[in-house]
Amino acid sequence: MVIDRAALAEFLRRRRASLQPEDVGLAAGPRRRTDGLRREEVAGLSHMSTDYYTRLEQQRGPQPSEQMIASIAQGLHLTLDERDHLFRLAGHTPPPRGGISEHISPGMMRIFDRLEDTPAEIVTELGETLRQTHPARALTGDLTRYTGPSRSIGYRWFTDPTTRARYDPRDHDFLGRMFASGLRQFATIRGSGSRAAALAAQLLDESEEFQRVWELHEIGVRPRDTKRYVHPHVGALTLSCQTLLDEEQGHRLLVYTANPGSESQEKLTLLTMIGATDP
Question: Which residues form the HTH cro/C1-type domain (predicted)?
């Protein structure tokens, strides 16, 4: 496929003009001379330099990579159809949809953007964290920093002791069964060539504990509504977890809250003030 620079530039300008700061979780600020977002705002949301983004709107520069286009699609809160169109304009084949897609829907992003003072995260069906609020990073550390199979909390559970150290030991057995059950479910749904199946095969080679739990052949071990954490600075917290599911993408928005007036609520407030800690 060949890049269509003129159409790409026009599409970016139109989409940028159609968005207001509050649509993407930004403060409105002082009066603006033109409608829509500024170029520097889109660049910041897309994790790239303003100069790089500006060149795309001005039909200049090299062909953007698939990674750059994916970042712009997320920064502009594009729908899946719009994302696929953007990829084609940039001369790339759109990435697959469904279970392995990392493109978060605009609706879910709008909700997430309004949860900045609440522990919340968006995860894939394999437990890979795509977005975290600041309070969520304070609670569990930055879970978006992992690469490779370690992006999945199910993989880390059986291979990285620091992951399970954040959870109450009374829940460890259940959580191990839950992660294995979920991985088996998606390996079956997605097939033998899927990432879920590859992750299960890798864990079978690396973890004797996973082998024992996998042999139970459990399906449908669901997450509990109550999560018990052990934080290195504030100690034990008991939180409720509410889940919003994007059925098309398989993403889940997880929101954590504590009972008003409880000790856990006080600790959450303290954590937000402390900021993120390493896992």
Answer: 36-83
